[in-house]
Amino acid sequence: MRKLLFQSLIQPPLTETAPAAEAAALAELATSLGNEARRRLGRSLSVREVDAGSCNGCELEIHALNNSFYDVERFGIRFVASPRHADVLLVTGPVTLNMREALERTYQATPSPKWVVAVGDCAADGGMFAGSYACVGGVSAVLPVDLHIRGCPPSPTALLKGLLALLESAANGPSR
Ligand code: SF4
Fold first, then answer.
1. Is the pTM value of this prediction over 0.85?
2. Taking CB atoms and a 6 Å cutoff, what residues make up the pocket around ligand 1?
3. Plot region of 137 (φ>0 → left; ψ -120 to 50 → alpha; else → beta)
4. pLDDT per residue over 43-99, tens digit each?
5. What gap in Å lies between CA 157 and CA 29, rounded to an integer?
6. I want to staple 118 with a disulfide (CB 3.0 to 4.6 A). Which of 1, 125, 139, 156 is the partner?
7. Helix-strand-coil percent breakdown of the chain, rounded to 5?
8. Bridge partners for 116 per DSSP
9. How confident is the model at residue 21 (pLDDT cuts 50, 70, 90)?
10. What's the gap in Å between 95 CA and the centre of ligand 1?
11. How does the average pLDDT of the chain come out, rounded?
């Protein structure tokens, strides 16, 4: 016991060191996104995540944006609990028959201007679930989609890049 105690005092903690270069690039990306949101909207960007039938893999990557490593809220990107407070709907998964009406009602409850982002290969065209009797198809089969972010699942960095591209393109065109 004394030996273990002594070892715990002299050994470094068993944790991984943070990837410093990527963290800096990520901070720059998230700052650009926050600034673009303030320029376009005059405030933070509010995001509502909608799972229309995914395997939850895409959700894990989206949730990672709020963990202590990414912590995107410090850059002015907030996930909100209600579509009535949202600017962007992040929709994952193929749209299942059971979730179709819920997705449509969520869209109708979101105030304009609003954008729909289809996250993941399944949201783009049904992915590996395409053709299933239980699925309608990709998100564009139900809602007008402003941006597709491909990947299975897309990484948190890919999600931030996609949102930034969305806001930059939205500044030059109409939105709903
Ligand atoms: S794109 Fe991949 S991770 Fe995302 S819902 Fe489909 S199968 Fe799951």
1. no
2. 54-55, 57-58, 92-93, 120-122, 127-128, 152-153
3. left
4. 888 999 999 999 999 999 999 999 988 888 888 889 999 999 999 999 999 999 999
5. 8
6. 139
7. 50, 15, 35
8. 89
9. low
10. 12
11. 88
Phi, psi of 171 (to 5 degrees): -65, -20
Q: Please give the single-letter amino acid code of residue 128.
A: M
Pocket test for ligand 1, best of 50, 51, 92, 139 (most atoms within 8 A of CB): 92
Please name the residue that has the structure tokens 């939105």.
175
Q: Provide the 8-state DSSP code for 19.
A: -
Question: Count of CB atoms within 10 A of residue 62's CB?
Answer: 22
Ligand 1 centroid vs 155 CA: distance in angstroms?
A: 12
Q: Are 53 and 94 in contact (CB under 8 A)?
A: yes
Phi, psi of 94 (to 5 degrees): -70, 150
| 3-state class (DSSP) for residue 120 | coil
pLDDT greater than 70 at residue 174: no
Pocket test for ligand 1, best of 99, 122, 149 (most atoms within 8 A of CB): 122
DSSP letter string, 84-99: GG-SEEEEESPEEHHH
